[in-house]
Amino acid sequence: MLQLFRNRFYVALSLILAMLVFGVLGYRFFAEYNWTDAVYMTVITISTVGFGEVQPLNDVAKIFTVVLILVSLTVVGYAISVITEFILSRSNFELLKERRVLKKIEELENHVIVVGYGRNGKQAVQKLTTYGKPFVIVERSEEIVNKFQTDEMLFITGNANEDEVLLKAGVDRASTLISALPNDSDNLFVVLSARQMNKNLHIISRASEETTYQKLKFAGADNVIMPDKIGGDHMASLVVVPDLVEFLDNLQVTTGGRVNVQEITFEAVCPDNQTRTIRDIDLRAKTGCSIIGYKSPSGDYVINPEASLLLERDSKLIVIGRPEQIENLHKEFAI
């Protein structure tokens, strides 16, 4: 719709330009005015300001003036209506688009809020998309929002340091907030604000300086990630254990964005809430996936758990498999 109004807007401007050229040429040849007087007469005629002629008009020039006035009334009237409609429609279109996005966000619960759509924010969104996690992006740059916003990419335009912006993103209903802003002080402020508005929110923050790490933890961040430190460790690992690192890099997501590592809750494998052992649920036979980790309700991890391990309520299993086996897992346990 906005494109239609834009096209009509350009048509109206073209008509006005054509009418100016028509008037100038008419006065130049019919009234034998010089170019300056022809432009002057055209403008005062079209604008209907009522000034007198530069010099008396002959009969042909008078008829031409009548025609020009009638044409100008029509063209200018059309141009004013189109330009006004274009301006109003543009404002209404942006307003309707914002309302549509806010309505979709209001329907979300236990979603993820990603603050900042820079390099780290894009990586986070890519992973969330791969795993099918609902998310909302808070970005202050209107240029970035207009470039990347789609029906699947829900953006809130604004500064995340303002409480109203976080509330628009549904911070009170969200499960996780990822603060990926490049400035540590901005991340610190976002963490403080988000923690005050949602005590149960899981907060993950980016940090550039080691001195900011403890401050972010004290402000309420559950996890603090330092991309530069991780990058250095990763490069060193490529020297020490290159094959292992390459395997781990390709472990979570394979080519095409298909998942081959998944976590599954106790409620999914034991829908009746009856405790069972790993042997009892027989995950390998049902889906082809292998259990490589177990997280207890207290947060302790067991690597490569034994088949006799008893699953507890609120625990989680970490499983690995080929993409088709992960799909079988989703179908079997309705994940």
The number of distinct β-strands equals: 10
Question: Tell me, what's the shape?
Answer: elongated
Q: Give me the side-by-side strand order of the main sheet.
A: 3-2-1-4-5-6
Helix content, binned percent? 40-55%
Order of helices and strands: HHHEHEHEHEHEHEHHEHHHEEEH
Number of helices: 14
Residue runs with pLDDT of under 50 for 5 or more positions: none
Q: N-to-C terminal Cα separation, in Å?
A: 39 Å
Oligomerization state of this entry? single chain
| Class inferred from helices and paired strands | alpha/beta
Could you explain the architecture of this structure?
The structure is a single chain. The chain is elongated. The longest helix is centred in the N-terminal third of the chain and has 48 residues, at 59-106. 55% of the residues lie in helices and 13% in strands. Strand 2, helix 5 and strand 3 form a beta-alpha-beta unit. Strands 3-2-1-4-5-6 form a 6-stranded parallel β-sheet, with helices on both faces. A 4-stranded antiparallel β-sheet has the order 7-10-8-9. It has helices at residues 2-29, 35-47, 59-106, 119-130, 142-148, 163-168, 184-197, 210-219, 227-240, 242-249, 266-269, 278-281, 283-287, 323-333; strands at 112-115, 135-139, 155-157, 176-179, 202-206, 223-225, 261-265, 290-295, 301-303, 316-320. It is of the alpha/beta class and 335 residues long. The model has no long low-confidence stretch (mean pLDDT 84).
